[in-house]
TrEMBL record:
Residues 92-114, 139-151 have a biased composition (Low complexity). This is Transcriptional repressor rco-1. Keywords: Repeat, Repressor, Transcription, Transcription regulation, WD repeat. Residues 88-238 are annotated as: Disordered.
Length: 599
């Protein structure tokens, strides 16, 4: 009987059938694997081919774009040339459709989310702060160089969400204009006066809103800088000085460049300068470096030795070598969120050149160690955006001005705020005197104030009958310290003489008076400065022009046109012979000026 034994002892059952089946299964798996591997190779080949096709298409599109850019630039240059020729022959100018003044009356400042620079940056289609936009003017040819041009309109500043702000800006109409957003505006009170001071809230006093990176306003034709053929009785550029009022003789933007003799004009590839025919030409000027940025350039400033220039733009400050134009440092706070814009409104080197202070929309002053690219000091306390900074010559004190209606002094050695000077309106600009004794500030309330740094006492307030008629956006001390200049939305520059009593004369009253008014800009004066020895007053304006003025006579020496949007900042090199400009056209430029040696 079989009890389940497989067979005789030592005999293995046959296994041929199961082994053959296993081999068949393995062969099937191997075949499927090889098939899938082949499909994978074919798929990768297809993907590679598609990528190559996409790259080829991208290359063709890029080539077409470059071709389009070149054709567009040629057309724009030709249209601009024809426009100048038409105006030179007495044809209609670009402002010919205007039946009133080309600029609105000096704006009133109102609370709300409007801004300081919005509209100042723009060429046309912009009204003043608290005013509706003026009638639209026809669009003109031109714009940014193609590689910087964007798809939208002229660069302006959209109000950014965030903490309360304090500067009045340009109000838009019911709809966006040229790519600008338009925030709601409060209704101005009778007489253009703004409501009383308000505390912090969801949207506080208006402030400079965030510059928006759009394409620039057109160039060279500008509604702020018309060059129509003068009427017959004014056509001669060589009228005797005593036949023309000084203010009229300084409006160099009205000169017809085509009819000027060669010794009264100079032209570069994308810039030109005209020299006052009613003054002896003693200066020459030329462009050294063109420094493109990725956003509006809000400020420019030189190191004390003149070797470097710093610029402030969106989210970063940059430092360039003046001689070569090469970037040497990019300073950006990596701890901040990348969301939204954060414009650097002011930059300032320490006297020893080791540090750069920056003031921004986030209400923070950062002092950077340039060598390490690290933040050495960080000052907080301002309640609104910071619009202006200045380093004292002693290298220890920094002055700051903010939309929170205060000027504050900060001590780098103790890392503390040492002075808080409050006024009735937003502070747009600050400057410390060369001897470190005084700090001056310009304000939206049309006045310039000067305080004693040690005591915090108000030394003098410069305003009144001979003062500015609108907000002051820029102040600068003369090298001697006993004078300062200010630039305003009233389109003028004023020179003030300061008589500050010695500390040895107790009870003596300080005085200040306007000794000269410089008139000639066609639009808001946004920045002023004096050259290192006080030889020239330098100014930048919304009219896109830069002008040199004789401080002793008030006569304009030259007007420089090169930027394609508002000149927001001008700065002379302390080493002399060089100056820089920053603009809404997303460029900074470095220029040379020297004594004219021509005929």
């Amino acid at each position: 009987m079989n009890h389940g034994y497989p067979g005789p002892r030592g005999v293995v059952p046959p296994v041929g059938a199961p082994t053959q089946r296993l081999n068949e299964l393995l062969d099937q798996v191997r075949a499927e694997f090889e098939s899938e591997a082949q499909r994978s190779v074919e798929y990768e080949s297809t993907i590679t081919r598609h990528i190559q096709e996409i790259e080829m298409i991208r290359g063709k599109v890029y080539a077409l774009e470059q071709q389009h850019v070149q054709i567009k630039a040629k057309y724009e240059d030709e249209i601009a040339r024809l426009q100048r020729e038409l105006e030179a022959r007495g044809g209609p100018s670009q402002n010919s459709q205007h039946h009133g003044p080309s600029q609105p009356q000096p704006p009133s400042i109102g609370h709300g989310p409007s801004n300081l620079f919005g509209g100042i940056m723009a060429g046309n289609n912009q009204g003043g702060p608290g005013l509706v936009p003026p009638p639209q003017e026809p669009q003109q040819p031109g714009g940014l160089p193609p590689h910087l041009a964007g798809p939208q309109g002229p660069p302006g500043l959209n109000p950014a969400p965030g903490p309360p702000q304090h500067f009045g800006g340009y109000q838009q109409g019911p709809s966006a204009v040229n790519g600008y957003g338009q925030p709601p505006q409060p209704t101005a009170s009778p007489g253009g006066k703004r409501p009383g001071p308000g505390g912090p809230g969801p949207r506080g006093p208006p402030g400079p809103a965030t510059p928006q990176q759009n394409s620039a306003a057109p160039y060279p034709g500008s509604p702020q800088v018309p060059r129509p053929t003068p009427p017959p009785h004014q056509h001669s550029a060589l009228m005797a000085p005593n036949q023309v009022p000084l203010s009229q003789s300084n409006i160099l933007a009205d000169l017809d460049i085509e009819s000027l003799p060669d010794n009264l004009k100079k032209e570069g590839t994308d810039w030109f300068a005209v020299f006052n025919p009613r003054a002896r030409r003693v200066l020459d000027v030329e462009l050294i470096h063109n420094l493109p940025h990725q956003s509006v350039v809000c400020c420019v400033r030189f190191s004390l030795d003149g070797r470097f220039v710093a610029t402030g733009c969106n989210r970063s400050a940059q430092i360039f070598d003046v001689e070569t134009g090469s970037p040497v440092a990019h300073l950006q706070d990596g701890s901040l969120s990348e969301d939204g814009d954060l414009y650097i409104r002011s930059v300032c080197f320490s006297p020893n050149g080791a540090y750069l202070a920056t003031g921004a929309e986030d209400k923070v002053i950062r002092v950077w160690d340039i060598a390490s690219r690290q933040i050495k000091h960080q000052f907080t306390g301002h309640e609104q955006d910071i619009y202006s900074l200045d380093f004292a010559r002693n290298g220890r004190i920094i002055a700051s001005g903010s939309g929170d209606r205060s000027v504050r002094l900060w001590d780098l050695e103790t890392n503390q705020q040492v002075l808080n000077l409050s006024i009735e309106d937003g502070v747009t600009t600050v400057a410390i005197s060369p001897d470190n004794r005084f700090v001056a500030a310009g304000s939206l309330d049309k006045s310039v104030r000067v305080w004693d740094v040690l005591t915090g006492n108000l030394v003098v307030r410069l305003e009144g009958e001979h003062g500015h008629k609108d907000s002051v956006y820029s102040v600068a001390f003369a090298p001697s310290g006993d004078r300062l200049v200010s630039g305003s939305l009233d389109k003028t520059i004023k020179m003030w003489e300061l008589t500050t009593p010695s500390r040895m004369v107790p009870g003596a009253a300080p005085t200040g008076k306007c000794i000269r008014t410089f008139e000639g800009h066609k639009d808001f004066v946004l920045s002023v400065a004096l050259t290192p020895h006080g030889d020239w007053v330098l100014s930048g304006s919304k009219d896109r022009g830069v002008q040199f003025w004789d401080p002793h006579t008030g006569v304009a020496q030259l007007m420089l046109q090169g930027h394609k949007n508002s000149v927001i900042s001008v700065a002379p090199s302390p080493a002399g012979g060089i100056f820089a400009t920053g603009s809404g056209d997303m460029r900074a430029r470095i220029w040379r000026f020297e004594r004219y040696t021509g005929p």
